[in-house]
Amino acid sequence: MKTISIAAFSVAALASSGICAQTVASAYEGLSVAINVNSSNVTVQVTDPVGGTQSSVSTADQNIVVQIAKGQAFGSNGVVNFGAWATLGDMKSASVGGLQLKATGSYGIYGELGYAIDRRSLAYAKLSYNQLTADLTGGGPGIDQALSATGFGYGGGYRHALGNGVYLQGELMQVNYAEADTAIGLRFKPSNTVGMVGVGYKF
Hints:
With 203 residues, this protein is mainly β.
């Protein structure tokens, strides 16, 4: 009888330790994919090194962004996510001194440091490395040049699980790019404020 009691206690202890091992943060481990709608406000600072003049132009638009990420829990509530993303489609063009500047795509990689409030709610800070491509057209000489710029973004967001692997998310990011030179001597320096909402699935 004593042997049976000891065995039963051991089984209960093992079951209890298995439950404890499932921390709040462990709910966010694994591979996930998402599709998002971005609302972007792009500001481009234009510099003429010869004339020493500066101007800026802004344009706002929405586009679709797809992302894939891998999450890893640490401690009871900590979560680290690493992922990649890309936009689908072009943005509206902006007029700059008789020229048309149009963003044709953006993509990048990112890291998130999150805090699992519970098994359904996650708040996170985000850093990203971004690549932007654009076309510059028009002007007297008939300019047609492809531009690219790299930059870093920072921001934060919130993710809420609905169940069965499905989750909703929203975030706000600020992205600052390095200057891009053009064939006509002008320098373009884009920046982008992005608000995003989306739906994802964690495998």
